[in-house]
Amino acid sequence: MSYESNFVDDQLRKLIADYLESEGIVADVGFFVGETSNLYHKYESQIYDRKQKSISNSAKVWKKSLLNICSHLPDRFSLLDFGCGTGFAADIFMSIFGRRVEKLVCFDLSSDMVSICREKLSSRYDTKMIFLEGESGLEKLSNQNFDVVLTNAVLHHLLDLHVFLERLDRLLAPGGIYVMGHEPNANFYRNKSLIKITKRFGTYKRFKWRLSLDYVLQKLKIRSGARGLAQLTNNGLRSRGLIERDIPEFMIRKLVDIHVPSGIDRPQPWGLNGFSKEFVLDALQELDLVCFVSYDHIKDSHVKESWIWSLVEQHLSKKYPDDGSDCLMIFRKKN
Ligand SMILES: C[S@@+](CC[C@H](N)C(=O)[O-])C[C@H]1O[C@@H](n2cnc3c(N)ncnc32)[C@H](O)[C@@H]1O
Fold it and tell me: The dihedral of CA 72, 76, 78, 83: what is its sign?
């Protein structure tokens, strides 16, 4: 890993430090981002399986893509789901390869996520499973390696991406497989036609949303949405004495979804403009790409709004196969 990669992470820390200073927040950037992310995911864990439709919709992409690795897997293997959340990726993997999994380790910084994951997976599979949480869990991972490592929708939350990639290098056994699921795709954010049509779709969706029951329930504070999560996160930060006034919802989201580009509607305060295979391969030259899949060519089009949008989505996915808004990549470490 080069000096340049550390520079990218340092630059990101500096941008966030400047923002915190402008809000009068005195705290170490790593600590503050960690606390914000943990609080957000703690509250999100309670609604996660119900609300995260974009992730549950990527299940079919996962299942299809995993066919590409059958020939690379040993008869019996160890599996790590890093940033497991409520267990989405581990569950899909186990439903396909369960009998061959010798040991499954699920790790997340959020203990609330891990306890839902533990309950769900323990009731479904009788493989040897270990559940690790928080900094102490991360510590326990430090002297282990695995034949397969999964992350789903995790990298875009990471402040020190290169620290994670170095860790990944140690976590993967020689010949091991890394599946990086559901990350924002850099190709999409460079494709002006897709951005334009996504903006139109956004206008249409906002109009429909205001007519929905969910909108009314959230307005009446009977049901919580992303705005509710931002408010709960602000309350948590305030009760820990970390802030004196609320951070705007958009910035809470940016502190949590650090590398999800906000470029569709407004300028990006910090973070990568999506992920590319080159980014990972440049950082970890021991990896070879096995497969790259992109989906949702109109961002968030998994919410099937109407048959017209579905037809447009189908057309775009044929025209720009690699430019969907989200992507899944599979890598194999050299022997
Ligand atoms: C969007 S959720 C994805 C969860 C799960 N992988 C899935 O596919 O449903 C992101 C998860 O990453 C976890 N996370 C955030 N930062 C992390 C870090 N530095 N190390 C490990 N997990 C982290 C969060 O607690 C959360 O559970």
Answer: positive
Q: Which atom of ligand 1 is nearest to the CA of 41?
A: 25
The CB-side HSE value for 295 (13 A sphere, CA atoms) comes to 20
Is the pTM here over 0.90, yes or no?
A: yes
Residue 10, in any domain of the structure: no
pLDDT category of residue 88 using cuts at 50, 70 and 90: very high
Q: Which atom of ligand 1 is nearest to the CA of 45?
A: 27
Length of the chain counted residue by residue: 335
Per residue in 177-191, pLDDT tens? 999 999 999 999 999
Q: Are residues 250 and 31 in contact, defined by beta-carbon separation less than 8 angstroms?
A: no
Residue 240 placed within a domain: no
Mean pLDDT of 305-333: 92
Indicate if the pLDDT at residue 228 is higher than 90: no
Q: Spell out the residues 6+ positions from residue 39 whose beta carbon is closer than 8 angstroms to its own.
A: 232, 233, 236, 237
Is residue 197 a contact partner of residue 316, using CB atoms and an 8 Å limit?
yes
Q: Is 307 inside any structural domain?
A: yes
pLDDT, tens only, 148-171: 999 999 999 999 999 999 999 999
CA 297 to chain centre: 18
Domain assignment present for 311? yes
**Domain at 115, CATH number:** 3.40.50.150
| Protein residues with CB under 6 Å of any ligand 1 atom | 37, 41, 55, 83-86, 88-89, 108-110, 113, 152-154, 157-158
- Structural domain count of the chain: 1
**Which of 113, 154, 179 best tests ligand 1's pocket when mutated (most atoms within 8 Å of CB)?**
154
Parent domain of 328 = 55-187+273-333
